[in-house]
């Protein structure tokens, strides 16, 4: 059984892609790194996917889906961060009401950093195939007030990234992915 965390590696032609989507790729990598460094071993596999060709229409995601859809019942949740890594506020979530209640309970663990909201509908080109087939999905929600200042522009460089905000995003990704991966049962569908 698999809990998938992800971001995409490719960027728009004119930018370096530090925000879109280097930040999402980084926090996904960091989540698994933190879990390993803490010596935690969840019941399910945590899988990091760094998508390619998202900006060209999600070609990498389509290929991954085609290769793994026969095992769709083993995918517990698919998580994608692709809207920057600014100050987080919570998660977008796609899944049934029982699964949403579980995710809301998990998010209460993040009260100390004030990131507890669960919004309707996860977003993510790379996880859409899975969610359409009933796999619960989550996407990071953060402060988008500056996102379109840099989105698909030459301004999308490392100077956009705030390490303290990225750490908060990585904390959200780490807690959510680990708790779901370590629960007794998979999220209900």
UniProtKB/TrEMBL annotation:
InterPro entries: CPQ, Peptidase_M28. GO terms for molecular function: carboxypeptidase activity; metal ion binding; metallodipeptidase activity. It is found in: Endoplasmic reticulum; Golgi apparatus; Lysosome; Secreted. Keywords: Carboxypeptidase, Endoplasmic reticulum, Glycoprotein, Golgi apparatus, Hydrolase, Lysosome, Metal-binding, Metalloprotease, Protease, Secreted, Signal, Zinc, Zymogen. GO terms for cellular component: endoplasmic reticulum; extracellular space; Golgi apparatus; lysosome. Transmembrane segments: none annotated. It comes from the Eukaryota. One of its GO terms (biological process) is proteolysis. Residues 2-173 form the Peptidase M28 domain. Its main location: endoplasmic reticulum. The keyword NAD does not apply. It holds the Pfam family Peptidase_M28. Homodimer. The monomeric form is inactive while the homodimer is active. This is Carboxypeptidase Q. It comes from Bucorvus abyssinicus.
């Amino acid at each position: 059984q698999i809990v998938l965390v992800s971001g995409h590696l490719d960027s728009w032609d004119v930018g370096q892609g530090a925000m879109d989507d280097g930040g999402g790729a980084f926090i996904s990598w960091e989540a698994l790194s933190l879990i390993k460094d803490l010596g935690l071993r969840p019941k399910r596999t945590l899988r990091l996917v760094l998508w390619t060709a998202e900006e060209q229409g999600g070609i990498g995601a389509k290929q991954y889906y085609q290769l793994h859809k026969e095992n769709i019942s083993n995918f517990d949740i698919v998580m994608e961060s692709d809207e920057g890594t600014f100050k987080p506020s919570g998660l977008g979530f796609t899944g049934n009401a029982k699964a949403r209640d579980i995710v809301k309970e998990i998010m209460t663990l993040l009260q100390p950093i004030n990131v507890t909201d669960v919004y309707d509908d996860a977003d993510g080109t790379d996880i859409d195939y899975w969610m359409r087939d009933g796999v619960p999905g989550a996407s990071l929600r953060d402060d988008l007030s500056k996102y379109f200042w840099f989105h698909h522009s030459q301004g999308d460089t490392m100077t956009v990234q705030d390490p303290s905000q990225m750490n908060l995003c990585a904390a959200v990704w780490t807690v959510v992915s680990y708790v779901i991966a370590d629960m007794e049962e998979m999220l209900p569908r």
